[in-house]
């Protein structure tokens, strides 16, 4: 509910919102219905064009995904569906664009974010937000509730996979970072394979490494006693 009405209908005391939260396999973000929207062409405003001073341009959503402008098929599918929904409501196609968030607008946990913007007398106004929020919401709910919110896919046959193992030394991190220990631990555990292996190499060669913690908005120094990083072969059934 809005408590500070201004700018006419853009800020009223209350209005109805709708939200879709779609869950996807983080290792396979393809979408079976993406071909249904892949040939849609509409105004898109990628962050590179914004930074370089170029204007929004018409791009097929299928090409945007192939070129890496849009992060994945599932995100592209929902961008396409939002376009169809808004134009079905009567929004002028020439006054509708999809603007990608700049790097400094992105949440630290997000993979990619786009806004459907409509041009009106106040300029381009965000009306719909479409974001790949990774697993942040599930992790946050799990942390608060203590109930693991996970899904499993069963394999026809068990398979051997190489797994990245990151084990923060909570005692050492607690001594070093006091009340910020939890945020440093979570950031270490959330590292991707490339970043983790680069840290491992730096720790082995130099004994310490600089590590940026988004929730602290600064870099911290991690030494080799604070975290163990390795790879192990494990048999998975699901």
From TrEMBL:
The keyword Nucleotide-binding applies. It is found in: Cytoplasm. GO terms for cellular component: cytoplasm. One of its GO terms (molecular function) is glycine-tRNA ligase activity. One of its GO terms (biological process) is glycyl-tRNA aminoacylation. SUPFAM superfamilies: Class II aaRS and biotin synthetases. Keywords: Aminoacyl-tRNA synthetase, ATP-binding, Cytoplasm, Ligase, Nucleotide-binding, Protein biosynthesis. The keyword Oxidoreductase does not apply. InterPro entries: aa-tRNA-synth_II/BPL/LPL, Gly-tRNA_synthase/POLG2, tRNA-synt_gly. NCBIfam families: glyS_dimeric (TIGR00389). This is Glycine--tRNA ligase, mitochondrial 1-like.
């Amino acid at each position: 509910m809005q408590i500070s009405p201004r700018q006419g209908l853009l800020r009223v005391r209350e209005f109805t919102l709708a939200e879709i939260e779609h869950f996807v396999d983080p290792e396979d973000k393809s979408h079976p219905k993406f071909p249904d929207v892949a040939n849609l062409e509409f105004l898109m405003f990628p962050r590179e064009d914004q930074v370089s001073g170029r204007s929004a341009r018409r791009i097929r959503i299928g090409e945007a995904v192939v070129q890496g402008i849009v992060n994945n098929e599932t995100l592209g599918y929902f961008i396409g569906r939002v376009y169809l929904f808004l134009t079905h409501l009567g929004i002028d196609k020439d006054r509708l664009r999809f603007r990608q968030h700049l790097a400094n607008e992105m949440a630290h946990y997000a993979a990619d974010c786009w806004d459907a913007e409509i041009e009106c007398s106040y300029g381009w106004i965000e009306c719909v937000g479409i974001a790949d929020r990774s697993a942040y919401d599930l992790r946050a709910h799990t942390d608060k509730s203590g109930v693991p919110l996970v899904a499993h896919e069963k394999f026809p046959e068990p398979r051997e996979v190489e797994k990245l193992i990151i084990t923060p030394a909570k005692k050492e991190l607690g001594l070093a970072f006091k009340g910020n220990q939890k945020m440093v631990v979570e950031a270490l555990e959330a590292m991707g394979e490339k970043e983790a292996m680069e840290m491992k190499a730096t720790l082995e060669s130099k004994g310490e490494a600089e590590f940026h913690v988004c929730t602290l908005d600064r870099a911290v120094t991690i030494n080799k006693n604070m975290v163990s990083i390795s790879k192990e072969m494990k048999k998975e059934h699901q």
